[in-house]
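Input sequence (318 aa), recorded before submission:
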Amino acid sequence: MAHTPWGELPVDDAHVHFFSHRFYSGLAQQRRVASAEALGPLLNWEIPPENPAALAARWVAELDRFGLSRACLIASVPGDEASVAAAVAAHPNRFFGYFMLDPLQPDALDRLKAAAASPNLHCVCLFPAMHRYSITDARVRPVLDVASEHYLAVFIHCGALSVGVRTKLGLPCPFDLRYSNPLDLHPVALQFPQIRFVVPHFGAGLFREALMLADLCPNVWLDTSSSNRWMTYESLDFRSVFRRAIDVVGTGRLLFGTDSSFFPRGWQASILEQQATALYELGLSKKQAEQILGRNLQQLHQPRTAERTRTLEPTNAK
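Predicted structure, token format:
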């Protein structure tokens, strides 16, 4: 249980980046240094061991330290789904597995089908601005077909996009924000009503558009993660953002998240404190707080977890 203004509550984090050894190895190649470990002094961060289970254990210790029940681990580079799957396999009751996919890559569909067959992966993450495609592109349709068939949630990054580790290493961020409008998801969400879509960071600067989308599409959820610096674009604070979101979406489709990522910083407890304080000051009941801070995440993945349970159950011979 985590400490909140309502007392001790179960809290799940819907947005934690799993910066695996493979993730750092890819950055090392781009930065042209000898190894992932060589990035440690440049970043002043800890580089994890090659075994993802060791990093998973570090995150479990963080969850235990702050009284969290569960977290979503996001593979933060395409092709790293095995790292997250291994982490979830080691601690299946503490994590949900998320993985990044670039639908334009020739092996994307094969990777997705393999991920869909894993009981340890629950959500595919798409970054249209990063990989420079529209969510309505015909090449995305097969991805959505597989997600729909296998009850995978679909996380779609919209709005402003920055990758702090790339900036810190002096690496380019050639993202195309023309593909970041949440409203582009509207026809897709209507076409795939079985898929539960997640738009992180309240739309990351396109808050109005994210609210419109979620209002029109009951299968769209918003996550609250990060410090949400985009609020300065619209002169908003946490209380006004939450008030507007709850007025439009209610408390049943908001997912608490922090956007935590690297060590030694670890889990960002200050974000829980800021957001829980805002919700408490708005007068939310304990039951409503429990929804946003944890229960909604369990509900989001219930179709996938239930389907995996049915698939794995032994059949009785007649």
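Checked by second reader. Strands lie at 2-4, 7-9, 12-18, 70-75, 95-100, 123-126, 153-156, 197-199, 220-223, 254-255.
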